[in-house]
Design a protein that fits this description.
219 residues, 6 helices, AB_hydrolase_fold, two-stranded antiparallel ribbon, seven-stranded mixed beta sheet, Rossmann fold, PLipase/COase/thioEstase, globular, Alpha/beta hydrolase
């Protein structure tokens, strides 16, 4: 299989033969790229395989995974295709690299967060957990997609209190929906615009290490 997406893969330097590693797939925001996402998770590069997935649609100097009719209104056909293709890519990468299929994580910002939450709802327990930064779940996903249980899927969702792209109200609505899907939800607000603060990064890095069983309590 030739993957539909270009991607960067970072394997731990001290890769042990025969060992399976937890993996983080990163999905960037609209107009960005996979390399911009690596800095958010670079501190985990010795413990996780990190795979940065680049959107396949050029946009300015960056990329996107799907186009929009307007803010918060994805073009449905393109969105559906992206969800299908990204799920196929996750399975592809699991076969290509020494990935522990029981510890697969998605981490996305903005458009990438939207896709991460959608994939969690469509893949269910095929994923261990997701980190969704400043995103939302489209109504058509909730109403029309075939959804799987999130009961055993861990979710870290965060939002900027002063987000000028997706107002904080959307963050609260997203958290309320996710609370009805999983008891393994951590929802945090940060005093920021549409971005990721150092405190936000520190919190989700700690959360990922704990959830993947790499630490047993807070450092």
């Amino acid at each position: 299989m030739n993957p539909k997406y270009s991607y960067d893969v970072h394997l731990p330097d001290k890769l042990e033969q025969g060992r399976k590693y937890p993996v983080i797939f990163t999905f960037h925001g609209k107009g960005s790229n996979e390399r911009n996402m690596f800095g958010l998770v670079a501190p985990l590069a010795e413990e996780f395989i990190i795979i940065g997935v680049r959107g396949n649609l050029p946009l300015g100097t960056g990329y996107q995974y799907y186009d929009l009719k307007g803010l918060g209104n994805p073009i449905r056909e393109m969105f559906d295709q992206a969800v299908s293709d990204l799920e196929a890519f996750i399975h592809y990468a699991t076969q290509q690299y020494p990935v522990d299929p029981d510890r697969r994580y998605l981490l996305g910002f903005s458009q990438g967060a939207i896709l991460s939450m959608t994939l969690a709802l469509t893949m269910g327990e095929q994923l261990k957990g997701i980190v969704a930064l400043n995103g939302y779940i489209p109504d058509f996903v909730k109403m029309e997609y075939k959804l799987r249980s999130l009961k055993n899927v861990s979710v870290f969702a965060s939002h900027g209190e002063y987000d000028s792209v997706f107002p904080v109200r959307i963050g609260h609505e997203t958290a309320a929906y996710l609370e009805g899907q999983t008891e393994r939800l951590a929802f945090r607000l940060y005093p920021s615009d549409h971005g990721v603060t150092e405190a936000n990064q520190r919190d989700f890095l700690q959360w990922l290490k704990q959830d993947a069983g790499l630490i047993t309590n807070k450092e």
